[in-house]
Every structure is written in C-alpha cells, then in structure tokens.
Design goal:
Elements: H1 3-17, E1 27-32, E2 35-38, E3 57-60, H2 76-85, E4 91-95, H3 101-106, E5 124-125, H4 134-144, H5 148-153, E6 155-160, E7 164-169, H6 172-191
Parallel strand pairs: 5-6
Antiparallel strand pairs: 1-2, 1-4, 2-3, 4-7, 6-7
Helix pairs in contact: 2-4
C-alpha cells in the first residue's frame, strides 16, 4: 500500500476523534507527483472515518478520469481544481470542524485572535455555491487567490457558506495543524461572548 494512502487514512481517524471531521463528511487529499490521493465517498456516513489505506482513491489530477470512479468523493472537484490552480498545493482538507461551522452558517469570516493563527490572516467566506458543483470549486479557487505565500509557508483557508472550511497547504501535517489552530481560534471568538465584560 502507498504510504501516503496510509497517512491519509490515519489522519482521517484522528481528525474525526478531534471533532474536525464529522459523520456528514468532509474530504482529505494529498498529491504526489501527478497523482492525487483522496478519501472516498461516504467516508463519514458509512465508514465513520474508520478508513484503511485500501479505501483511499487515487488517480491523475490533470485529467477528469477520477470523476468516473464511483468511490470518488462528490466534493473531489474542489480538490482537483485546487491542485490544478496552485502548483504549491500539496494537501487539501475540507472539514466540518465543530467550532468553525457556526461561522459558516452565519457567513462570517474568522479573524485571528490567537498569536498562533495570526499567520493565516482572516479566514474569509467565499461566494455561496451548490455543494458538489463546478461553481463551488471555482469560488474556492477564487477565494484562495492571493494566499499563495501563506500556502507555501504552511496553509491557507477559506469558508464555504453553510458548508465548511477548506484548508490548503504544503503537506498533510501542515494542513491538519492549520485546521486545528483555526478551529480553536473560532472557539475562542465564540467563548469570549461568555466572559464577563
């Protein structure tokens, strides 16, 4: 089995345990050379993120061959569009992170309130588009434009309204690290409302 597939499967289990992915879904992918490795359709709903390396779908990202694979994630179009648009994108996580979702529902950006998230800047909201659509892929790519340096350094992120967060970076570990930092940052914004003035 490919070690990248094993890493993706293991990461999915870890992120699910940390409430960064949920049963409703999400996706994890990484690229190596001209190939993309991505979690399959229904990773959350049917597998509850208990994936093994053999579950991971792979194929070239420069063509649409993967779209014909019945196991290819419906949100995989976003991942393919990102890899085609950004040469430095090494990994992508689309997540339904617990503390981030209120911001997606409210269509509100996440400002960096922690020192550890300052480098990501404001996590902005892209224009709303239908899930699983080419339009969503285009909106996410447009929202990431101008964040290439952050992506090369570690990771950049955007929010899809009523949907979730998309984090893109140099490799899987960098992207997972950014996702959790942004989620804790989101919690701090929400928790501040509970503090006495």
């Amino acid at each position: 089995m490919d070690p990248l597939a094993e890493q993706i499967a293991a990461l999915g289990r870890r992120l699910f345990d940390r409430r960064l992915l949920d049963i409703a879904g999400g996706n994890i992918s990484a690229r190596a050379g001209g190939r993309v490795f991505i979690t399959p359709r229904y990773s959350g709903g049917r597998k509850h993120w208990q994936l093994v390396a053999g579950d991971i779908v792979s194929g070239p990202f420069a063509t649409d061959d993967l779209l014909a694979d019945p196991a290819f994630s419906r949100e995989g179009k976003v991942h393919l569009a990102i890899y085609r648009a950004f040469a430095d994108a090494g990994a992508v996580i689309h997540a339904h992170a617990f503390h981030v979702l209120p911001f997606c529902a409210a269509r509100r950006p996440i400002a960096p309130v922690l020192e550890q998230t300052h480098k990501f800047g404001v996590v902005e909201v892209v224009a709303e588009a239908q899930a699983h659509s080419d339009d969503l892929a285009e909106q996410v790519v447009a929202g990431l434009r101008g964040k290439e340096e952050i992506m090369r350094s570690q990771a950049a992120a955007v929010l899809a309204p009523r949907h979730g967060i998309i984090v893109v970076g140099k490799d899987l570990l960098a992207v997972a690290d950014a996702l959790e930092r942004i989620d804790w940052n989101a919690w701090c914004i929400l928790a501040q409302r509970l503090l006495a003035p």
